[in-house]
Give the backbone structure.
Amino acid sequence: MKYSWHDYNPETMEYVENWLDKHAIRMTGIDDGFRDNYEYWANDGEHIVGENYWCKVVSENEKPFAVIQFGFYEGTFTIMETFVAPEKRNQGKGSKLLKELLANGKSIIGREINRADAVIFPSNKASQKAFEKAGFKYIRTNEDGDAMDYIFEQT
């Protein structure tokens, strides 16, 4: 694997908050900070961290550059949030980390990832491109037009 994957720790990974600039907030909808977002999902009662919910910080050469949050529901992984540090955007890092996660799920989280889905804002062209490069296919735009559904299925 090219990247190293570490569990997100809200007490020691303050730099993730700094990645949540105006652009990332607009593209993810996380406007209360990533720590609050993580705490909500990790403690909502349906999720068990490390069993059906993961939040990973991704590093290259020991330097963190992205965070990805995902869960497992009824046989499908759902990518909840993914964002890359501002200085690493537009370099293909998002699609590469998605590809690595999909190909190496067993090593990263102890489970193979054969099916995954994601919901992306229509204005988030960078995420659409990253997910498509990683093998996700566009399925549909929701009726109200505010979100697009993507799916990945291992062949």
